[in-house]
Amino acid sequence: MISISPAQFCLFAGIALVVAEFAVPGVMICFFGAAALVLAAVYAAFPGLPFTAALALYIALSLAMVFGLRRFLPKTFKGRSSVEAGDPDDDDVAGSLVRVAEAISPDVPGKAEFRGTLWTAAADEPVAAGEIVEILRRENLTLRVRKAAKT
Fold it and tell me: How much is the pTM?
């Protein structure tokens, strides 16, 4: 029978939870893994730590990390899903004029050529291939467009 110390168990559990974060979105599991890693260090420093004290410490660490750090980390790991005109990070997307390569209808996206690449494009009105449209915003990999004003 294999015997591992509580410090080793916490170390392995912490690593497993941190790695599991890559498979489960939401930036939540990593906090429990980090708490387990801290608990592993505490167990290594204090090998005679009673189980109830370790459990209380783990719960306190987990809650402190979840409520103390969760609001800061998603901004780091998540991308932005929409970029609007006037946004300082719009990367000059909104307001650009592009040519429609495949017709767009309100319920079926088409294609528009932007910077030499075909993008999925969606509009609230039908737009024929070859027409010029204005990009309103980018929603992930889809350009939300409208017919360009005639000049």
Answer: 0.48
